[in-house]
Every structure is written in structure tokens, then in C-alpha cells.
Design brief:
The complex is a heterodimer of chains A (about 650) and B (about 260). With about 650 residues, chain A is an alpha+beta fold. Chain A has 17 helices and 19 strands. In chain A, helix 4 (about 95-105) crosses helix 5 (about 110-130), helix 14 runs antiparallel to helix 15 (about 525-545) and helix 15 (about 525-545) packs antiparallel against helix 16. Classes of the chains: A alpha+beta (about 650), B alpha+beta (about 260).
Chain lengths: ~650, ~260
């Protein structure tokens, strides 16, 4: 299949307006004759479900949670970007576009990113109208703060829980449509298969997580808004349930998977404390506005600190290395996430890490507290400091926080065109689940922006263009493809339950996570990736011959759920490794050790790799086929990213 | 890898866990031993250890709800030693760490107990009643698009902050579990307050409180007798003031409203 990104003609700033005029419309009286399935009810899914229902479509929304309000969007702390220029500091749609393209290390599509920047301003208005309690100034107007990778203050926030407040806004809009009967909500339902009829997405197969019942659902179009796949690493800042199953099932039915190796490692997370660790906790990037990152200047000093011979307070100012401020004077502690993470790793690799494991750097608020006082600092970060203390039993008002990078976000995802349609007609992907807007690295406070942009302001237009091209006649689950997909789900579940081996799903997941983190994590090289590929294949064989489960399908069986997700991660992991091997350059979150500048910065190869790598499934244990979408840059000049 | 407190000694504990096959079956307390529990572990990581042990022995793991494990999604909901979310104030179960317990302790773990929250299995309960209360009116009726600029609705900072405080509710249901009447007043009042305080919420102010309270009663939650256990056990500190505000909103709506059929 030819990869057609369907980017509209014309000047960048006019593409979206023109496109909105050119797309076909569904007559208001006909909208009620079309059914749309939306899988996932986080920011991207709930906003799409509410907006499409408001337009008049019949929506069926699915989540594996007990309530749509629990999606992992809820955990986003720092904020949401918008090019409002309320601060009069030189922001504009073009600047947000430019920062996002540059922050993504020139591996995203200009047209998509520009549209994202354009609709960012509408998102804030929408959320305010819904009653989202954003932070405000004393004059009653909206407050902003700055975030990594930007030199303007364009981030809107609700203390340290912007994600929860935005999600509750979308959830309230969704709840209203559920009450009206325009959205039928299916909770504790996990999508386990996509149904394709005559080459078009036509429905899904789900498992009711309480009863185990396998159900089929038909619709004129299917939207996946199922989030990212960071949990392939086992330990990440993602919630425990986050998984790749829905998009991976779609991938195996023909949806291309784009740039899977583009993973974001977030610099400010609470370090690992033991083998029992089940997840990692993020400390918002907003902390870098006031916290200063440092390690001892020398390895010797760090060793004495780790050994408990000296305390933090014993290290004089001149023995501290504020390495981000030193290396990047103009951005300082606010360099993009990939740069901050890599530098923290480097400091620890040099033996200058802190904490008992040596795998941590300090994030120090002493200067901010001296400058602004405890009250002001507590107002800004109180809940984050409290969370840190709960987990570590250390008080960040007195001792600097210990932080270390952790997997946080995945820029890769299902390949989509400008309309957010995947390579399967009628199947859309929105939010973190698609690959489209963040290139090789996402800027802070841009995930919430993208999820809501896709759901509120993009898909309501573009899905109509597709639906208008088919007759408004009912669709049913009568086609043989539904029966086949349903049987495939039954067979797979029975297979998982019948292995009766000796190792738990979590053991396999942890083992996979170690392979991925060690060889396909913050830095990668060909040898390590080749090794990882073999290890993953081996682990996958062991999984299917030695998995242990108890219980049946016909009940709430949480280990069975985990096993199904781990099975998919075991396939995705290998594709990530293949993609990382293929991309013989360093860009954004993808750092190949073989390709770096003399100053250890990522070295891109625009001549050979300025493309989106879109992978096509060809069968079990077969190498996937690579399709390339060349990226055209007409409005920005590709330069070596510099934050000095 | 050692934690940040290398001197912390591992603990052995006795767990008394509620086991119940499904909504319609009878449940009972079953006793388990867990060994070598690090004080650095979270409570749910301790349950992970138990579940891995059970599975390896061929027993069925204990079902419990959780997800973000950072105190914000509101999924986790354990009744630990007779307290919603356990002994630490202002803390969800997932943020509770084992350093709050001692070697040799016996810990009783039960699900939320309320008629409106039927048990799915073991420690997992069905809290969809909360969703239905929100569906009854916990929103501002605006469609996507066509709204005014964000800064055209100025809101005094103290009002915005107060609305925010009410909006921090994570819908975990601890308020219901902690209440001897299984009342949902704190949950419902948090949403009522948030929207009643904000200028955007004024248009539907009366219908909202009437409809949400009606749905709350319909779901079978108990009445409020002003004990305040809900606010005492709320992991995010939702204030009792919200209940007072909701009562005022409700009476004023009832006295003047022509909204409900």
C-alpha cells in the first residue's frame, strides 16, 4: 500500500481551514444513522466521544476501567500548552509549531504540528467553559508557567494535577452524552480484536472483564484512543493497566505501526528502590522551573556521599556541578526531556550519581526556598513534595530530591494520515496511540494538548469526510468476519489458560522490561539491539510454553488480563528493536551511541532518515515490511538542535 | 538494589483477606502469611508479592482494583484494619508504604462495604453508582466549539482556588466506606460545590443539585448524620464545608425551583 499522508495543498497556515471546507459533510439528519466505536476514554477518547455524540452520531465507548474517569491521562501533572500569548512574551501559533517541530528533532509532520498549534487556543476556551479550574492570577485571568524546551510561558495548569482536571472536564462532557443516550458506555470491557470487513474497519471484539463474556460490536468507523505502550519496559511512569493490545491487534489486521523506537524517557522520576518495584512515579517537569539539577563535581565526593561518610549539606557550593546550567546556559534546567535525561545518565555513568544505588541526581529547591520562601514554593509544588515524601520518607523542603530518568511516553504509535486515519480505512487513532505530532521527542505539556486537539477539534471534522462516503444504512455483526474474530479471541484465551507452565505473567513482563531498558532504552547500539532481538524471541517462545495461570475465562481473572497484554508486548518489543536498528542516526529520544557529535549530542542524518518508518505486519515470527513516508520541511530549516 | 534506607529490616506479616468469588456468592476472611516484605514497598506491592506466591502455588490470586499507583486515578479502594485506605492520613492505598507497619503485624484487608457498591470479586467493588450521579447533572452543558475566550470569564483567585479544592476529589469512594450510613454526601457535594462556585456553573445551578441528589438517593446511599468520618478519611482532603454548601444549595433550589417534574 502507498503511504499517502493526505496533507492538504497550500500554505501551511491555510491548510486546515481549507481542508475543513473541502471535507465532505454528513447531513445533520443523517448523523444519527451512523455508529462510531471509540476505544479508550482518556483525554483523546472521551473528548472525541462527547464531541461526536454532540454532533449527532451514535457512539459506543469502551474502557477497561471501572469508570471512564480513571484513564491514565488523569495522572498528568504539569500542564497543557496553548499559543494564547496571554503573557505578552512573544508566543504565537508559529512559535508553538516551531518549538514542537524542533523539540521533536525534526521527525514530525509540519502540517499536523501546525494544526495542533492552531487548535491549542480553542482547547483552553473549551475547558474553561466546562468548568475546569485552571490556576488564575489575582485579577481573575488565567495563569501560565514555562516548561522545558520553550522560552515563553504558555503552559496552563491546575496546580500539579492538570491531567485530572482536564480529564474530568472531558468526562463530564461524556457523562452528559451518556445521560442523553447518545453514548453507550461499556466499562470494564477490553478490546481484544479488530474486525475488518471488505478492507474496512467495521467493529471490535471485547471481553467483559467481570464475566469473561466475549462480545462483538459493529460500527461504521472505529477510533482507537488507547494511549501509549511505555509499559513494554515493565517499569514506567504509566499506570499498571496501560498496554498496547488494542493498537497491536489492529496492527496485526493491517494498520501500520510508525516509529515504534521513539520512546520518551522523562528526566525527573523517583528512582527505583527495589526488585519488587511495580511502577515509577514521575515528579512533574514543572519542578525544573525552580529546582536545580546537580551532582558532586567528583566521583570521589559522590562515593563518600553514597557511603554515608558525608551528608549533602557537607558538600560546598564549589564542589557541586549544576551540569545542565553549565552545559546549556540559555535553557539551563529547562532543556527538553531527552537532553536532560541523557545528561543525568551520563553523570551517573561517570560515577557521580547519588543515593544508595548511585542511579540518581539531585533536584534541589534550596535556592528557590531562600528566594521565595517556603510558602510560595509550597503553593506551587506542595502536592508534589508531599507525594515525594510519602514514597521516599524524605522531606524535599530540607533535602534535595533524588531523581532519575524513567520511561514516560511513547511518540511512536499507529501510523495515521492528516485525517488521523490509519492504513485501514475507517480505523482512526488519536492521542498518544498515534505517532503523528511529537516526532522523536515530545515537549512537556504537549500530550494533553494533542489528546484534546485530536478529540475535540480534529476527528469531529475528519471522520465525517469518511462517513459521508458510505450510505447511512445499518451495520451489524452478522458478517463472517465477526464470527472469525470472536473465535480467534476464544482460541487465544484458551491457549493462554492451557499452557500450565511454571512462570507468572509478571515474571515474563519483568524479564522483557529488563531487556528493553538495557538495550533499547536511553541509549542504544547495534550490538545490544541484535542481542535484545534474540533474547526477546527466546523469551516469547518460553512465554508460550511455560506460562502459569489459574482460574478460567468466565470470571474476573486479572492475571489472564495481564498475560494477554504481555503476549502483545513481547511482539511489540521486537519491532521496537528492529526500528531502532534500522534508524542509523540519533534523534530526540532515540540515541544510537554510534551516531553522536563530539559533545555527545544526538547526531541526526537528515539525508537518509528524515522519514517516518511505518511497519507492516506480515505474519507471526516474520520480519515486518518497512514503508517510508518522507518528511517534507518547507517552513522550518533543519538545524542541529541547540539549547546552549 | 537497596532502597534509600538500607537499614530497614524485612518484615513477616499475617494477612486476613476478604475472598469472595463473585457478586452473588458468599465471602469469607482467609488468612495468608507473607515473608520478607521490605518497608520500602508500597502496600499494593506487598499484595503483588502475595499474588505471585498464590499463583505459583496454583491458587487464585486476590482481585483488587488499582492502576496509576500514584494516588490520583482513584481506583484503589482497600479497607485496611478497619480504615478506608489504611492508617496514614491523606493517603490512598497505593501511596501507603509498608514502613507504616511492623514485623509480626496482622493486617485485615476488606473491600468497601456499602449496598451501593456491590462486590465484583474479593476486594474489587462496583462503583458505577458514582458515574450515574455525575451523569445526572455533574457537568456544564456546553458543546464543543462556540465558547468564549478563556479570559472572558474572569474568576477571582480565591473562588477559583476553592473550586479547585472541591474538584480534587478522585472518586475513590473512601467517604462512603468510612461512613457508618454509607452516605455519598461528600462525593456529591464536592462536584456540586465546584460548579456552584464557578460563574460557568450558574445557569444549571438549581437543576444540578436537585438531579444529582435525587440520583444519589436512588442509588441506595445512606443519609448524612454529620459525623464527619468521610472528611477525616478522605485521601485528598475534601472538606466538610462542601456538604454544608450542598445542603444550602439544595434547600434554596427546592424552595424556588420549578425545575423538577
Amino acid at each position: 500500500m502507498n503511504l499517502d499522508s493526505k496533507i492538504p495543498e497550500g500554505p501551511l497556515a491555510e491548510k486546515w481551514e481549507k481542508h475543513k471546507f473541502n471535507v465532505k459533510l454528513v447531513n445533520p439528519a443523517n448523523k444519527r444513522k451512523y455508529d462510531v466505536i471509540i476505544v479508550g476514554t482518556g483525554l483523546a477518547g472521551a473528548s472525541a466521544a462527547a464531541s461526536l455524540a454532540e454532533l449527532g452520531y451514535n457512539v459506543k465507548a469502551f474502557t477497561y476501567h471501572d469508570s471512564p474517569r480513571r484513564a491514565h491521562s488523569i495522572a498528568a501533572q504539569g500542564g497543557i500548552n496553548a499559543a494564547k500569548n496571554y503573557q505578552n512574551d512573544g508566543d504565537s501559533v508559529f512559535r508553538l509549531f516551531y518549538d514542537t517541530i524542533k523539540g521533536g528533532d525534526y521527525r514530525s509532520r509540519e502540517a499536523n504540528v501546525y494544526r495542533l498549534a492552531q487548535v491549542s487556543v480553542n482547547i483552553i476556551d473549551q475547558c474553561v467553559a466546562q468548568g475546569v479550574p485552571f490556576a488564575r492570577e489575582y485579577g481573575g485571568l488565567l495563569a501560565n508557567r514555562s516548561f522545558g524546551g520553550a522560552q515563553v510561558s504558555r503552559t496552563f495548569y491546575a496546580r500539579g494535577q492538570t491531567g485530572q482536571q482536564l480529564l474530568l472536564g472531558a468526562y463530564s462532557a461524556l457523562s452528559r452524552q451518556i445521560a442523553y443516550g447518545k453514548v453507550k458506555m461499556y466499562t470494564r470491557s477490553e478490546m481484544l480484536e479488530l474486525v475488518v470487513v471488505d478492507g474496512k474497519a467495521r467493529g471490535i471484539v471485547t471481553r467483559n472483564l467481570i464475566t469473561g463474556e466475549i462480545e462483538t460490536h459493529a460500527a461504521h468507523a472505529v477510533v482507537l484512543a488507547t494511549g501509549g505502550y511505555g509499559n513494554v519496559f515493565y517499569l514506567s511512569t504509566n499506570a499498571k493497566y496501560c498496554n498496547v493490545t488494542a493498537p497491536w491487534r489492529a496492527h496485526k489486521k493491517g494498520a501500520y505501526f510508525a516509529n515504534p523506537c521513539f520512546t520518551q524517557i522523562h528526566p525527573t522520576c523517583i528512582p527505583v528502590s527495589g526488585d519488587y518495584q511495580s511502577k515509577l512515579t514521575l515528579m512533574s517537569e514543572s519542578l525544573r522551573n525552580d529546582g536545580r539539577v546537580w551532582v558532586p563535581k567528583t566521583k570521589e565526593m559522590a562515593e563518600r556521599l553514597r557511603g554515608g561518610q558525608i551528608r549533602v549539606a557537607d558538600i560546598p557550593e564549589e564542589e557541586r556541578d549544576y551540569f545542565l546550567e553549565r552545559k546549556y546556559p540559555s535553557f539551563g534546567n529547562l532543556v527538553p526531556r531527552d537532553v536532560a535525561s541523557r545528561n543525568a545518565k551520563q553523570a551517573c555513568d561517570e560515577g557521580r550519581g547519588v543515593g544508595s544505588t548511585g542511579l540518581a541526581v539531585y533536584l534541589d529547591f534550596a535556592d528557590a526556598i531562600k528566594r521565595e520562601g517556603v510558602d510560595k514554593v509550597s503553593q506551587k509544588y506542595g502536592n508534589l513534595f508531599a507525594m515525594y515524601e510519602k514514597i521516599t520518607a524524605e522531606n524535599p523542603y530540607e533535602l534535595p530530591m533524588r531523581i532519575y530518568p524513567a520511561v514516560h511516553y511513547t511518540m511512536g504509535g499507529l501510523w495515521v494520515d492528516y485525517n488521523l486515519m490509519t492504513s485501514i480505512p475507517g480505523l482512526y487513532a488519536t492521542g498518544e496511540c498515534n505517532f503523528s505530532d511529537h516526532g522523536a521527542n515530545r515537549l512537556g505539556a504537549s500530550a494533553l494538548m494533542q489528546g484534546l486537539a485530536d478529540g475535540y477539534f480534529v476527528i469531529p471534522y475528519t471522520i465525517g469526510d469518511y462517513l459521508a462516503q458510505m450510505p447511512p444504512t445499518p451495520v451489524t455483526t452478522q458478517h463472517a468476519a465477526f464470527k472469525e474474530a470472536e473465535e480467534a479471541v476464544h482460541a487465544r484465551t484458551q491457549k493462554l489458560l492451557s499452557i500450565k507452565g511454571t512462570r507468572t505473567p509478571n515474571e515474563f513482563h519483568k524479564a522483557l522490561g529488563h531487556i528493553m531498558w538495557d538495550h533499547c532504552g536511553m541509549s542504544r547500539n547495534a550490538e545490544g539491539l541484535q542481542f535484545a532481538k534474540q533474547e526477546i524471541q527466546k523469551l516469547r517462545r518460553e512465554f508460550w510454553s511455560d506460562l502459569k495461570l489459574t482460574g478460567t475465562n468466565e470470571e474476573l481473572n486479572q492475571m489472564l488480563e495481564i498475560a494477554g497484554r504481555v503476549a502483545d508486548f513481547l511482539e511489540l518489543g521486537e519491532l521496537m528493536v528492529d526500528d531502532a536498528l534500522n534508524r542509523k542516526e540519533s534523534c530526540g529520544g532515540h540515541f544510537r551511541e554510534e551516531y553522536q557529535t563530539p559533545e555527545n549530542e544526538a547526531l541526526r542524518d537528515d539525508e537518509n532518515f528524515a522519514y517516518v518508518a511505518a511497519w507492516e505486519w506480515t505474519g507471526d515470527n516474520q520480519p515486518e515490511t518497512l514503508h517510508k513516508e518522507e518528511l517534507q520541511f518547507e517552513n522550518v530549516k533543519l538545524t542541529q538542535r541547540s539549547y546552549k | 538494589m537497596a532502597g534509600n534506607n538500607p537499614n530497614a529490616k524485612p518484615m513477616n506479616l499475617t494477612l486476613k483477606v476478604w475472598r469472595q468469588r463473585n457478586r452473588n456468592s458468599e465471602g469469607k476472611i482467609v488468612e495468608y502469611q507473607v515473608k520478607d516484605i521490605s518497608p520500602e514497598m508500597s502496600f499494593l506491592e506487598m499484595l503483588d508479592v502475595l499474588n505471585e506466591d498464590l499463583l505459583l502455588k496454583g491458587d487464585e490470586p486476590v482481585a483488587f482494583d488499582h492502576d496509576c499507583r500514584e494516588g490520583i486515578c482513584g481506583s484503589c479502594d482497600l479497607f485496611i484494619n478497619g480504615r478506608a485506605h489504611g492508617p496514614e492520613k491523606g493517603t490512598t492505598t497505593c501511596q501507603l508504604h509498608m514502613r507504616k507497619f511492623s514485623d509480626g503485624d496482622t493486617i485485615t484487608i476488606e473491600p468497601w462495604r456499602a449496598n451501593a457498591f456491590p462486590v465484583n470479586r474479593d476486594l474489587s467493588v462496583d462503583r458505577s453508582a458514582f458515574d450515574r450521579i455525575i451523569q445526572a447533572g455533574g457537568y456544564i452543558s456546553v458543546n464543543t466549539g462556540g465558547v468564549p475566550d478563556g479570559n472572558e470569564i474572569p474568576i477571582p483567585k480565591n473562588i477559583a482556588d476553592k473550586a479547585f479544592e472541591a474538584a480534587t476529589c478522585i472518586s475513590c469512594g473512601a467517604c462512603v466506606a468510612a461512613c457508618k450510613n454509607a452516605s455519598a454526601m461528600l462525593f456529591v457535594s464536592a462536584k456540586i460545590s465546584q460548579l456552584a462556585l464557578l460563574p460557568q456553573g450558574q445557569v444549571e445551578r438549581k437543576t444540578r443539585v436537585e438531579n444529582m441528589v435525587a440520583q444519589m438517593d436512588k442509588e441506595g446511599f445512606g443519609a448524612c448524620t454529620n459525623i464527619g468520618q468521610c472528611a477525616a478519611e478522605c485521601p485528598v482532603g475534601i472538606s466538610l464545608e462542601n456538604i454544608a454548601l450542598m445542603n444550602r444549595e439544595f434547600i434554596s433550589a427546592k424552595a424556588t425551583s420549578e425545575n423538577l417534574a
